[in-house]
Design goal:
single chain, mainly alpha
């Protein structure tokens, strides 16, 4: 919902660190893979109940997610990099709630399953829209630097990360946080279905 508004601010904040990384010969793909590895450590930390460490890993993972794109734009963006970035991002989003389910199955397993299922709705509608938009040559004015068409919604990246931060700070509240966000994700999914239905309904390429 607020990703487009925050994008210019984030871009300015990470421009200088990205230039330093480029000068040192670090590639965007290396940053992407490293960030995902840090994210996996965060998932393990949640499983073990080390929520402070999980929060640090979450922040570093998201920092890497911003830096890889900035480094790519300063060097040579590739389709492989865009694919790797989005694929590992979606995987991380699914694994982080799983960590809470593993930590406390009795209380967290069902809400985690509901939340991850709602992520399937937002993710699949997002990617399906992007595929058809690419086929029709439609570009996103709100997210011109993204490697694929980026369809916004009520629950975007910023809101998801805010959710994960809240889960780390208030792990006991995980079930209610998960159920509430799953409901918001359902709204996002339905609005994306409607957007696709309306925009692609003409059948004209």
């Amino acid at each position: 919902m607020i990703d487009a508004a925050l994008l210019p601010i984030v871009k300015r904040a990470i421009d200088r660190p990205a230039r330093v990384l480029v000068a040192r010969g670090i590639s965007a793909d290396q940053i992407t893979v490293l960030g995902f590895g840090i994210g996996l450590v965060g998932v393990m930390a949640v499983w073990l109940g080390l929520f402070g460490l999980a929060l640090v890993c979450l922040v570093l993972n998201r920092l890497a997610d911003g830096l890889d794109g900035a480094v790519a734009r300063l060097t040579h963006p590739t389709d492989r990099g865009a694919f790797l970035d989005i694929a590992l991002d979606f995987m991380f989003y699914g694994l982080f709630p799983l960590g809470f389910a593993l930590h406390d199955p009795a209380n967290n397993a069902l809400p985690a399953a509901v939340l991850i299922s709602s992520f399937i709705g937002t993710g699949s509608s997002f990617l399906a829209f992007s595929i058809i938009a690419e086929k029709r040559g439609i570009t996103s004015e709100d997210y011109p630097t993204k490697g694929i068409y980026y369809l916004g919604g009520l629950t975007e990246g910023t809101e998801t990360i805010a959710l994960f931060v809240a889960m780390c700070l208030f792990p006991v509240a995980f079930p209610w946080l998960a159920y509430t966000f799953a409901a918001l994700c359902t709204i996002t999914t339905v609005t994306r279905w409607l957007a696709g239905w309306r925009m692609f309904g003409s059948g004209v390429l």
